[in-house]
Design a protein that fits this description.
The complex is a heterotrimer of chains A (about 190), B (about 700) and C (about 575). Chain A has 6 helices and 6 strands, in the order ααββαββααββα. By secondary structure, chain A is mainly α. In chain A, the strands form 2 sheets. A 3-stranded antiparallel beta sheet of chain A has the order 4-6-5. In chain A, strand 1 (about 45) and strand 2 form a beta hairpin. Chain A starts with a helix and ends with a helix. Chain B has 26 helices and 20 strands. In chain B, the strands form 3 sheets. In chain B, strands 1, 2, 3, 4, 5, 6 and 7 form a 7-stranded antiparallel beta sheet that branches. In chain B, strands 8-20-19-18-9-16-17 form a 7-stranded mixed beta sheet, with helices on both faces. A 6-stranded antiparallel beta sheet of chain B has the order 10-15-14-13-12-11, with helices on both faces. Chain B is elongated. In chain B, about 55% of the residues are buried. The two termini of chain C are about 25 Å apart. Chain C has helices at about 5-30, 40-55, 65-85, 105-115, 130-160, 170-200, 225-235, 255-280, 285-310, 315, 340-355, 370-380, 390-410, 425-450, 475-490, 505-530, 550-580; strands spanning about 210, 215-220, 320, 415, 420. Chain C is globular. Chain C has a two-stranded antiparallel sheet with strand order 1-2. Chain C contains 17 helices and 5 strands. The longest helix of chain C has about 30 residues, at about 550-580. Classes of the chains: A mainly alpha (about 190), B alpha+beta (about 700), C mainly alpha (about 575). At the A-C interface, helix 1, strand 2, helix 3, strand 3 and strand 4 of A face helix 1, helix 2, helix 3, helix 5 and helix 6 of C. Strand 3 of chain A pairs parallel with strand 3 of chain C.
Amino acid sequence: MFSQLRPAVLITIVMTVLTGLIYPLAITGIAQVIFPYQANGSLAVRNGTAVGSELIGQAFTKPEYFHPRPSAAGPKGYDATASGGSNLGPTNPDLAKRIEKDAAEYRAENGVTSGIPADAVTTSGSGLDPDISPANALLQARRIARARQVAETEIMALVRKNTKGRELGFMGEPRVNVLQLNIDLDLQYPMR
Amino acid sequence: MQQVADALKRGKRARPLFDPPIVRRALIDSFAKLNPRTLAKNPVMFVVEVGAALTTVLLFQSIAAHRPGWGFDFQITLWLWFTVLFANFAEAMAEGRGKAQADSLRKAKTETFAKKLVNGKIEIVPASSLRKGDICLCEPNDLIPGDGEVIDGIASVDESVITGESAPVIRESGGDRSAVTGGTKVLSDWIKIQITSNPGETFLDRMIALVEGAQRQKTPNEIALNIMIAGLTLIFLLACVTLAPFAQYAVVSAGAGKVPGLVVLVALLVCLIPTTIGGLLSAIGIAGMDRVMQHNVLAMSGKAVEAAGDVNTLLLDKTGTITLGNRQAVAFLPAEGVTAEELADAAQFSSLADETPEGRSIVVLAKEKYGLRGREISALEAEFIPFSAQTRMSGVNMHGRAIRKGATESIKRYVLQSGGVFSQAVSEISDRISRDGGTPLAVAENGRALGVIHLKDVVKGGMRQRFDQMRTMGIRTVMITGDNPLTAAAIAREAGVDDFLAQATPRDKLDLIRREQASGRLVAMTGDGTNDAPALAQADVGVAMNTGTMAAKEAGNMVDLDSNPTKLIEVVAIGKQLLITRGALTTFSIANDVAKYFAIIPAMFTITYPPLAKLNIMRLHSPESAILAAVIFNALIIIALVPLALRGVKYRPLSAGALLRRNLLVYGLGGIIAPFPGIWVVDRVLGILHLA
Amino acid sequence: MTSNGWFQIAFFFVLIVASAKPLGSFIANVIEGRKTFLSPILGPLERLVYKLCGIDPAQEQRWTQYTAALLAFSAFSCILLYALQRLQGFLPFNPQHYGAGSVSPDLAFNTSASFGTNTNWQSYTPETTLSYLVQMAGLTVHNFLSAAAGLAIAIALVRGFARQSIKTIGNFWADLTRSTLYILMPMSLIAAIFLCSQGVIQNLHPYTVVTTLEGAKQIIAQGPVASQEAVKMLGTNGGGFFNANSAHPFENPTPLSNMFEMFLIFLIPGALTYTFGKMVRDTRQGWAMFAAMSLLWLAGVVTAYHYEQNGTPILARNGIAVQASATQPGGNMEGKETRFGIADSALFATVTTDASCGAVNSMHDSFTPLGGLVPLFNIQLGEVVFGGVGAGLYGMLMFAILAVFIAGLMVGRTPEYLGKKIEQKEVKMAMLSLLILAACILLFAGASSVIPFDKGSYWNPPGPATANLTNPGPHGFSEILYAYTSGTGNNGSAFGGLNPNTPWYNLTIGVVMLFGRFFMIIPLLAVAGSLADKKQVPVSAGTFPTHGPLFVALLTGVVIVVGALTYFPALSLGPLIEHLL
C-alpha cells in the first residue's frame, strides 16, 4: 500500500486542479459568455430592478396575486437559501392537519366547492416551486378578478397565455409560472 | 441416455432404500451425532442445535417460574430438536448403507496365513506380517494374503468378494492380468505373487475406508455450497437478531403488543436458514458415492465423482467399448476370374484351425452365405500353418492346395515370391475396404490371389444414440484406436463419436489429454494396461479396469470392478445427478422461506399492528399455531426429502437450458408453492389436536 | 396514470437502449488504451498526468496491488476533503464567508466518507454550509474521482472474466486517469453547458438579494452549479449543490433538463453492460445483463408510478383531485414539483435508486408507503439495476456469480460463468460482500431504533436516536431504515425527515458508507484476481447459457429473492405496515 502512496497523493492533487478548478472555472467562463441570463439565475427584472428569479418561487399572500403552492423552505416558506420539502410522511397526522387546513382555506378564498388540484395543497420538493398547475391557476382566477375588478374571463385568458405546455409536447406537466403571471397581472391589470 | 438412467436404477447391489437394519443403526447414530463437535462441521445444523439448546434453557426457566404458555415453548423446543435429529438421521442413513457394505468386505479380511517363500522354502506367517516385496505362494483354496503382482504361474481366482461376480477370473504373470487382490481366493492351479502393499494399505483396506466414509473429505463444490448456505444463515441470523430492536420501536410507537420473545425469534431463524439443504447436504454426497459403488465402481474420492459430472471430453477405447471386441468377416470379394464360392471355400479351409474370433467368423460366414459346411480338420489330413510374426500369414497345406491368408501386403509378397500374379483388382479392393474402415484379408491359393475377405469392426448396438445424448449433454467423445486413420475415421463415423485418435500410442493419448486440459476441458478415460497409467493419472477422471494391472489401478481415481469400459458413461451421469440434487434442494430450501415469512411475521406482530393480519394469507388460526406450524413443516420436510437425497434427483439427458428450466420450475416454483398448503395442513392438525 | 406518462417512461428507456452500444464500445476502447477520436486532444494531457504522478500505465497490477492503490487513493483524497471543509474559512471562493463553525468534525468526516465513496449523503444544507471552493475543489473533484474509481473496479472485474491464466487485472492509475479524462470530463463538459441553457446557474457571485412583488426580501442562493450538476448525475453521485437537490429549480429547471438528468444517471451504467459484453467477447452476455436490469427497473417504475398517482387517504379525505387531467397532475404531489408531476417524479425516484445516484427531484419521504418502498428496496437490492458507475455492473456480476452457482448445480456441472468455474473463493467473496451490506443496514438501523441518548448529549443532542425523526409510527422507522440503507448502498438519497446532522448519525452513517463501499470492492477485486488466474472452460451444450431469457429471469429472481428474504421483516414493520394501516 505504501508504494502506492506517492501516486495516490500526486494524482489527487493533479486531478483536483484539473476537475476542481480548471473544469468548473472553464464552464463558468463559457456559460457567462453564451448563457449569461441563465447562468446568473434567470433573474426577472421589472423597472430595472430584479424582483426575483423566474425559476425560484416566491411567496404571494395578497388576494390580488396568484398564490403559489404551500412551501416548506424555511419556517415561512420560499426561503431561497433553505430549499427543501416538508418530508411529512403519507400517514403523518401533522400532514393530515395541514392539508385539511390548507384545503379549507383554499376553498374559502377561491369559493371552490369541488375537488382541488393536488398541487394547491401540497408542498413541493424544493419549497421553491415557481409553478402551479393550470387548473390551480384557473380556480384562483375568480378571486383575482374580484380583487382587481376585472372580468374573470380576462384573467383566465391571461392564465392560458402564461400556461406552458409540455416540453416538446410530451415532457413534464403543463404549468404556469406564478411570478411571471403576477408580473403580467400587474402590467395589464394594475391595482387601482 | 435412457440407458444410463435405466442403468442408474438397477444397481447390482441395490438394497431397498429403507433397509430395516440400516434404519435401526441410523436411528441410534442420529442421537450420537448430536455431539456439538461433530455437528460444528455443519454450520446450518449447528445453529439449529444452538437454538434448540437455548430454547431448552428458556423452557426450563419458564416451567420453573410457572409462566403460562410454556406448552408452546415446549413444542417449539421439541421440534427444534427433531429438526437436528432428522438431519442427523439423513446423514446416518446415507452412511449406514456404506457401513453395511463395509461389513461384508471386512469379512474377507479375517486373519489369514501366508505361504511366504524365503530362500525357496515355504514359511507359514500371518498375512498381516507381509511387507512390500515379500513373495508368497498361493495354491487352491488359499486366500491371497495381500495385494500383489503375479510373478509366476497361472491360476483361476474367485474375486467375488470384491466384485460380486461369481465367475472365476484368470490371473497369470506378465501382461495386463497379473494383479491380484488380497482376500480373494485361488480356485485352481497355483501362482507366486509379490506383495505390493503394506498391511493397512491394501486395496481392501482402502475400499473399506472409502465405503465407510472414514476418509470422506468434503468435495470442493460441497465446500463452496456450504459456504453459501453458511453465509445465508448469517444473513438470516442478522435479520432475526435485528428484528428485536425493530419490534421494540414498533411496540413503543404503536403502544401495543410486545417484542417477540427469544423462543419465537429462534423459531423464525430456524425456519429461515436453509435447514433442508443444510441437513441433507452431506447425505447427498455420501449417497452419491454409494450410488457409484452400487454400479460396482470404486471411486477413490468424492472429488472424482464430482469431476465426472463436469467432464467435457470422454476418451473411449475402440475395442470393447465402442465395438464388439473383434472384427468379423462380412463379405468375400473375389478377384477377376474367381467366383465368390471359390474364394469362400479357400478362406474357410484356411481358417478351420484358426481359433481367433476373426478366423471363426470367416468359417461361419462361408457356411451361412455359401452353404459350405465346416469340415472336420482331422479328416482332411491337412497341415496347418499358424500365424507368424515374420510371414504375417496363416494358412493350410493339403492335397496339393496351399492356401494362405493374411494382410494384403504380405500376401502380395508371398504371391510374387512364388512367381504368381497379384492382380491389381485385389489391391484396389483392399484399399477400398480400408477406406471404409474395414480390414482386408487377402487370400491366395497356390501362388494365385483369389480375392479379399472383408473383416469389419462391429459397432455395439445403441452406441450412436448414446453418443448423441452425450453431445446434448455437452460431452465430446473421442475414440482411441490403434487402427490407421482411414479405418478409424470410418468406425468413428459409424459409431457417431465426435473425434478419434488413430494409431494411438500411450504417449499420444497422454498428449491428447494434456491438450484438452490446456484448453480448459475436463477429460475422462478408461484404461487397464500398465502403459495406460500415465494417461489415467493425467485424466481428471481415470477409470481403471479391475482386471488391469496394479499400476493402472493406482493411477486412476476410480476402479471398475466389473471391468466394463462403458460404465464411464454411467459414472458421468451419477456425477451430474449428485450436483443436480444439491442445486435442486438448495433452491427448494431457499424458496420455502417465502411461505414461512407469510406464516410467522404476521403472527409476531398482529397485536402491535392488527392490519398486518392481512399478510396472513394462509389464514392460520392463531399466532402460536402459525409459528409452530412453520417449525413443524420445516422439520418434516427434511424427513420427507431423505429418499430424494439418497436416491438423487432423476437425471434427464437434456440440454443445460432445458434441464435448468425444468428444475427451476419443479424445485424453485414448487419450493415457493409447496409450503403454503403444507403449513396450512399442519396448522389445521394442530388446531384439531388442540396443541396450539 | 396517463398515456403521456407512459410515453415519457418509454422514451427514457429508448434513450438508454440507444446509447448503450456506441458509448459502451467507446468505453471499452478507452479503458483498453486504444486510440479514439479524443486521443489527439486528450492523449497529451493523459501522458502529462502520468508524467506528473510518476505512473507507468503499462505496468500491470495484481489484485492486491490494485486494491492497495485504490485504498491509498481513497484515503488520501478523503483526508484532503476533510481538511478543505474544516479550513474553508481561510480559503478563497467563499463569498458567503462560511467558516469551520458550520462544519463540525463529525460532519466533515461524514461528508468526506460520503463523497469519497460515491454516496453523496448530505447531513447538511449545502447552500448555508459550504463555500464555493469546497463545492468545486472538494465535492466536484470527488464526483469525478469516486465515479472513475468505480468504473475502474468494474473494468478490473470484467478483465478477470476476459483474461485467462494471468495474475494481473490492470493498472488502477491508468484506469482511473482514462475514465476521468476520456469519459467523465468530456461528457460532463457538454452536459454542463446544456444544463446551463436550460437555466442551471453557473457563477461565483455572492447570493442575490431581491425585493419581491409583495415587497418582501428574498435571498437567492447562487454558485457554480452546472459544472457540478453534470458530473453529479453522470457519475451517479447525487450530492446536490442545494439541499433540495434536483428538485431545486436551479439544479433542474425544466422537464427537458429533468429527462436529461435521468438519462445521465443511466447513461454510463447502461453502456457498461455493453462494454462488459465486448470485453468478454460476447456482447449477448452484456445484453442479458441489460435485460435483467431493465426488468427490475420497469417493475420499480410501474409500482412507484401506480401508487404515487393513486395518492394518499389524506388527499382523498379532503376532496383533492388525484386523477390526472389535462390541466393538473393529480396524485400524491406532496414533495413533488409541478413541472415534473407524478410520472417524472416516480421515474426519477426509481432511476436514482436503481443506480447509486441518490439525487432526487421529489422528496421520497413524502411518497406513499409503497411508492417509497420502491426506492428503499431498490437500494436494498444492492443498486444493481444499472446501478452506480461501475458499481452497478460489479454488483450485478456478483449476483450473477451467485445465480450461476445455484443454477449451474442444477444442470449437473460445477457452475461456470463466462467460461470461469465458480468455486469456493468466488462464492465466499460474493457472500461476504452480501453479508457486510446486510449487517451494516440491519445492525445500525436496529441500534438507532432503540439507542437512548440524553437530551442535549454530545452524541445526539435531540435525545434518543428516534428523536431525530420527523414522522411518527412505522414511517419513522422507515426513515431510519432508509438512512442506513442509503449509506450502505452508497446511494445518498434520504427520507429527509430524519435529521442526521448529529455526531451519532454522522459517525454511524459515515462508517456504513465506508464499509458499504470498500467491503464490497475488496472481495470483488479478490474475485477479479482469482478469475483472471483461471483457465477458460470452452462452452459446450452442457454449459448453461448465460445470455438467454432463462438466465435473465434467473438473475432477476435471485436479486429479488436475496433482497426480499433479507429485508422482509424490516420492511414489514416499515412501508408494508404503513400501507396496510
